[in-house]
Amino acid sequence: MIVKNVPGAVAAHTRGILPPMGDHSGHGHGHGHSHDPAAFAGVRTSSLPRNAVLGLLVLVAVATVIGLVTLWPDGKRPHAEYAATGVSYPVATVVSAHDPCPVIDPNADPSGTPEMPKGCDGLTVKLADGTRVDVQAEPGAVRSGLRKGDRVTLAKVPGAEGGAVYSYFGTQRKAPVGLLLAAFVLVVVAVARKRGALALVGLGVAATVVGGWMVPSLLEGHSPVGVALTASAAIMFAVLYAAHGISMRTSTALAGTLVGLGITALLGQLASGWARLSGLGAEASDPLRTFAGDLDFRGLLVAAIIVAGLGVLNDVTITQSSAVWELRAASETMSRRELYTSAMRIGRDHIASAIYTIVFVYAGTALTTLLFVALYDRTLLDLLLTEQFAEECVMTLSSSIGLVLAMPATTVIAALTVSAPRSHGRRRAAW
């Protein structure tokens, strides 16, 4: 790919002007042409664009710190009781799982509906003190394959005269989820090594910002868009520099990411208004309206749009910045226009794959909903334009547009930031 797009580098190697890939000897500029990211450190940058990018990032960093302090949650958010007074949630061990109840056809003749077998969808469990109780479980619990020895959580409601009523609350999944998490961490560190470990640190910082700052701040009624932009900027500063190191290459990717975030926020704000969305399409909106009715639900939708595109946006911008740095490392004779054109060829392939990723991830998570939609005698378009599905469409399309536009923006910033082209020791025109 690089050899094809950098004819100047090939010609220079043929004439013996440039050393072999990775050879630093005999050249004052002292940078190699290895494809290892460490070689990027030798790529020169132009002072004016570099200072402009760093100045922009400093301003955004200061604004982010001000936003974090100004919008800091003070603990006065609304609360809802999770359970009635006296209700507890003991863990029990499954002794046996009963047969699942048959599925009743809603269109069948009611007179011919079979009687439900006694105890179907039930569990016999043993409490910590050895007491055995029978509880009715939800249909999915028994059909999931619960068997003897599995652990479940019960809801214990105090009864009269010291007795208690038990009901199924949920299945304990700490072991399988914990093992998957451990496997994920081991694989990331084994394959990506130091970079992978630093990426995990960045992911931990992101989780802390979202759970420890963004969510409480939103519940306290602060501006959803302001909170989302502040949290997203803080996350991107942490994640990009932790995973990819502190360098101008990472800084240009961060600048492109911030441009994409701004575009996404603007589009989300406009699109939610054009589509007359209320932000109340999600299932969790009803309890939120009950316990925190003063929230700006349309603003929360825009905040969700901003956060939804962070992962793929980060992926695209760092790839584009690295592409430009790699091209300049391979050839000092390419003009900035050639750098931009070559990097955009890479970026177009990446964008095509990223769009597929976004669509298929959503299709996978919404597969059950799509099957439910297919049961009705209405067109798919009619159902997609209802409040619930329209919110998802606007979210996906707005974040995707921001993603696509961030790619050329990052490429331009990177192409301007790297050094001007050279030819036999003389500078060529930049464009």
Task: Describe the protein's topology.
Blueprint: H1 2-5, H2 7-15, H3 47-70, E1 91-97, E2 122-126, E3 132-136, H4 139-143, E4 151-158, E5 164-171, H5 174-219, H6 224-244, H7 248-274, H8 285-291, H9 297-308, H10 310-330, H11 336-365, H12 367-374, H13 380-384, H14 387-417, E6 422-423, E7 426-427
Antiparallel strand pairs: 1-2, 1-4, 2-3, 4-5, 6-7
Q: Report the β-strand fraction as a percent range.
A: 5-15%
Separation of the first and last Cα atoms = 22 Å
The whole-number mean of residue pLDDT values reads 79
Count helical runs: 14
Silhouette? elongated
Can you list the strand order of the major beta sheet?
Answer: 3-2-1-4-5
Main pleated-sheet profile:
5 strands, antiparallel
What low-confidence regions span 5 or more consecutive residues with pLDDT below 50? Answer: 1-39, 424-431
Number of beta strands: 7
The radius of gyration is 28 Å
Please write the string of helix (H) and strand (E) elements. HHHEEEHEEHHHHHHHHHHEE
SS-based class: alpha+beta
Tally of discrete structural domains = 2
Helix proportion range = 55-70%
Transmembrane segments: 52-72, 175-192, 199-219, 225-243, 255-277, 297-318, 354-376, 396-418
Protein name: YibE/F family protein
Pfam families: YibE_F
Keywords: Membrane, Transmembrane, Transmembrane helix
